[in-house]
Amino acid sequence: MHILVTGSAGHLGEALMRTLRAQGRPAVGLDLVPSPFTDHVGSIADSSFVERAMAGVHAVVHTATLHKPHVATHSRQDFIDTNITGTLNLLEAAASHGVAAFVYTSTTSAYGDALTPADGEPAVWIDEDVVPVVKNIYGATKLAAEDLCRLFHRNQRMPCLVLRTSRFFPEPDDSPAKRNAFVDANLKANEFLYRRADVQDIVEAHLLAVERAPLIGFGRYILSATTPFTPEDLAELRAHAPAVVARRVPGYEAEYARRGWRMFPGIERVYDNTRAREALGWKPRYDFSHVLERLRADEDPRSPLAQSIGTKGYHAGAYADGLYPVES
């Protein structure tokens, strides 16, 4: 199966291209930015360019996007052009070429304000039934693109799966308060409990989605590391996270103490990946327990794939706040 990967110069796009090439599977990369993994250089907002790139393609994995850190540097129209018009161009071309599977990379950020419980409320259990409440142009355009995928399945009968990914980027957190309060490795380890995944697991879910899309037709799935928490933990988790983690992952405190690390005092949301595991046959390996095991052995908890890709950043320049400009 000939696979077109958009965003091939980005984290996930490169990870997919590296994996497909290593497996000897025919794949071509498309991106606005030249890279060793990009075969077609151009914009997905250009329908003629997209049509040419679609020739001979049997499946599309669409990872190209403007991200949340671009909200401060790009206009709302830029987001519409890339995230909505670009996705529409790809769907139109894929449908006209009879593509057998279209996999769209969305984001858990699309849930927006639904991720934050009111004061005094328990943490929120986030699964596919939660209704998104967008809070910025990034989330609005990602949700619109998801619905375009649903529309093309409904009207053109093209198999389309939407994968809402949690954090897998290696860059420092975009919150200055969190960067100042926790060392980066501590912060990311904590996030594997409820809102982070390794890019290796994300790649495997996408490739499974390519295989399963013709059988499923259309579906939306959350991709995140498997949490040790249950809905029964939500009330205590919001205010007393260390106690819940100690109960669900016994012995974590010793390793954290050895490193001088801390658990978050409270956790406000938990991503549930159950439906993705069941529908796709996905078996994510990189979870909080895996991270602890590697840390105890003084090894890098990231997958070899994540280590190979490294940090890319989101902008060409630097800012007073490091990688991230201040959002207006």
From TrEMBL:
- Ranges for domain NAD-dependent epimerase/dehydratase come to 3-211
Q: Spell out the Gene3D superfamilies in the cross-references.
A: NAD(P)-binding Rossmann-like Domain
Origin: domain of life = Bacteria
- Report the coiled-coil segments: none
Q: Which InterPro entries match?
A: Epimerase_deHydtase, Lipid_A_modif_metabolic_enz, NAD(P)-bd_dom_sf
The name on file for this protein is NAD(P)-dependent oxidoreductase
Question: Which species?
Answer: Lysobacter niastensis
Source taxonomy: Bacteria, Pseudomonadati, Pseudomonadota, Gammaproteobacteria, Lysobacterales
